[in-house]
Structure formats: C-alpha cells, structure tokens
Amino acid sequence: MGERILVLLRHGESEWNKKNLFTGWRDVDLTEKGIEEARAAGRRLKTQGLRFDVAFTSVLVRAQHTLDLTLAELGQQGIPVLKDQALNERDYGDLVGLNKDDARAKWGAEQVHLWRRSYDVAPPGGESLKDTAARVLPYYIQDILPRVLRGDNVLVAAHGNSLRALIMVLERLSPKDIVAREIATGVPLIYWLNADSTVAVRKDLAA
Fold first, then answer.
1. How far apart are CA 200 and CA 145, in angstroms?
2. CA–CA gap between residue 204 and residue 116 (Å, rounded)
3. What is the full per-residue pLDDT of the chain (207 aa) written as tens digits?
C-alpha cells in the first residue's frame, strides 16, 4: 500500500485570465506566464520526490497543457492520463467572453459578485458552484478516489471551481468557506489521505 497521495493543480494563467474575461468552458490556451507556472509546478513537485501513477484532467486545453508541461518537468510523460468534462471549469453561461468590469456595468457589481461568490446562485444560462460540484464529486468518488485509496499517487490538473468542489469535500468546508477560498494558478496542493478518505496532511507548494 502506498501513501494515498492526491495532488490538485489549477492550470496556469490562461489568455482569458490575463484579459479578465469570464472563460468557463471556452477553450483558450495558456499565456507565456501560464506556461512558466505549469513548468514551475513540475519543478516544485520534483523537489518532493513524487512519482505519479495516473493523472486526471478536463477536456479543456489549458488544463491539459498545464498537465503536459508539469509531467515533462517531472520526466513522467508516460503515465496514463484520463480526460473528462466532469472536471471542466464552471460554465459561466451568458457571462462567457465578457470582461468582468463590463459585466458589472451591465448587471451591477452586487449581482456579478453574487454570481461569482455565492455557492448556489447561477449566472444566466450557466452553473453555480453547487451545480459544478454535482458533476465533479460523483466523478471523484467513482474514478479518482478509488485509485488514491489503493495506493496510487494521483495528479489532478483542472480549474479553479472544479477544484473548489473537491477541496470543499476534502477539507470539509462550508459553502461560505469554499467560495472565499482562492486557488492560485500553477500551485500544487498535496493531500495525504487516510484509509477512510479523510485528509491526514495537506501541503501547499506555493513559492
């Protein structure tokens, strides 16, 4: 039996992160800064001496590119990589493609803040964090967690809100706590799990 290690990694800065646009399921790639963040994540993980057995990612290129660059830094490109839209970013619906300042001008700062930072209020045509969790968590329980519990070292490269859904469960956070939680781009979070799937140790590899 291995150590039951789960690493969560938010993708590096994307082109639309840089432009302050709502991205959601729109498929945009990394910036030069994002590419370097992904490589730096690999270097940080290398200092921990981690070897991964399997990786999971979304169907969006910014997460996949981040994973590829991270594994390349680790010299572990050959491991199985499983891709599923269950790990996609939250769908922002009618907000997708809008500058966040323009959205505030259109709907008002208070309304946009509610869409962005509430747990169960969805933007028009989109998903709330609660909706995102409703697709992320079954996938975690059925596909990811069993691999961790049997001793595989697992890396998940995904998105701010799909990872929030996982962190909410792992760290037993309330809806209020999780929406306030910031997840930095390109910073690995390492969890050592107990046999009952609770967290024994958490380590943040921020620079």
1. 15
2. 24
3. 468 999 999 999 999 999 999 999 999 999 999 999 999 999 999 999 999 999 999 999 999 999 999 999 999 999 999 999 999 999 999 999 999 999 999 999 999 999 988 999 999 999 999 999 999 999 999 999 999 999 999 999 999 999 999 999 999 999 989 988 999 999 999 999 999 999 999 999 986
Tokens representing 138 are: 């079954």
The SS3 call for residue 201 is strand
- Could you tell me which CATH class the domain 5-204 is placed in? alpha beta
Domain ranges of the chain: 5-204
Instruction: Note the residue count of the chain.
Output: 207
Q: What amino acid positions are annotated as catalytic residues? A: 11, 89
Q: What is the reported pTM? A: 0.95
Helix (H, G, I), strand (E, B) or coil at 164: helix
Question: Rounded to whole angstroms, how far apart are CA atoms 53 and 202?
Answer: 19
- Which residues, other chains included, contact 94 with Cβ-Cβ below 8 Å and sequence gap of 6+? 123, 124, 125, 126
Q: E-strand spans in the chain?
A: 5-10, 54-57, 81-83, 154-158, 189-193, 199-204
Alpha-carbon span 138 to 150, nearest angstrom: 18
Tell me the backbone φ, ψ of residue 202, rounded to 5 degrees. -125, 135
